[in-house]
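Weekly structure sync, notes
Attendees: PL (lead), two postdocs, one rotation student
Agenda item 3: pending single-chain targets
PL asked that the sequence for the first pending target be pasted directly into the notes so everyone works from the same version. It is reproduced below exactly as submitted, 342 residues in total.
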Amino acid sequence: MEQTPKKKVNGAPILLIIRILVAAAACFLIFKNLQFKELLAAFGNLRGWVILTAVGVKFLSESGIAFRWWILLRSLDIVIPFPTVLRLHFYGLFFSSFLPGSIGGDFVCAWYVSRHTDKRFQSALSVFVDRLTGLIATGCIVAITYFLYLSELEIFQDVNIGISDFFHLHLKEILIVVGILILMCLILLATPKGRIALTKVWLLIYKNAQKGIRHCRDVLGIFFKKLWLGPSVLLLTIIFQSLTLLSFWLIGRDLGVSDQIRYYFAFFPLAWLIGSLPVSIAGLGLLEGGVIVLFMTITGAGQEAASALALCQRAIFLIGGLPGIWIHLRADYLPKTGRDFC
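Predicted structure, written out during the meeting:
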């Protein structure tokens, strides 16, 4: 009797549903008590030139980020014309901004840039290095702003004290949990099946750790291949991210959120880091929630004004991905001539 082969379960739809639910729940919590008349009134305070400036800065910043990626590709001896890299960047940005699928913009960029060169692994690795550079630069902006301008605020000092008190008060419970985990491992080691299971887990962790170490070594190799590369791409990223933050500051002033630019340089990058977690659709709900909560809690901004600022950020991000639609329709992400293949 033939047995029916078991079908492999694809977890991608389940993960997508979870991300959609997280985004929907976050949006519901953010906007459930919102006064929409006051929200519209806040939008009415925006000046046209401020919006146009923010949109222009968004396109300029994304072009600068594409230039950063082009520099990383050249450091790997991958010669692809900058217009091609620019199109691939905006195409990936379109996927990241609009499509609620499991295929992110980074994967799209890595896939199609590898079609423009025979150095496929290195070209795909450049996308990872490019994203890592952006995250490091964002973290640097948050850290510098915090230590220079925000560390003296009472609310942050209370947070530090609260974390210390938490570990001090719950030290007994933490030790109990750790003891239980150690006891479970000892019980598993006492049985043959348990030892086999632990061995498989250890081998899985070991192989993934080796893979991670190799990737880190490759990434560090790229940064240290030329001494000027790491500092230059970080500085370039900080400059273009700062331009974006300046445009949000202009918007926030019109909306009546806050006149102090330091808050924008601290809160928006922190929200970007939170939004980069792969638990939502393009950070939907997380980005907005981070901006709203931080500005309301620390600057005392009204919910409607902070929400209007968060929605402006989302709208500008979506507008920045619109060129990807035209690139998709024209299939400009594919190599057309031998000049793109080096």
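Discussion points:
- The CA atoms of residues 49 and 55 lie 10 Å apart.
- The radius of gyration is 24 Å.
Action: rotation student to compare against the earlier draft before next sync.
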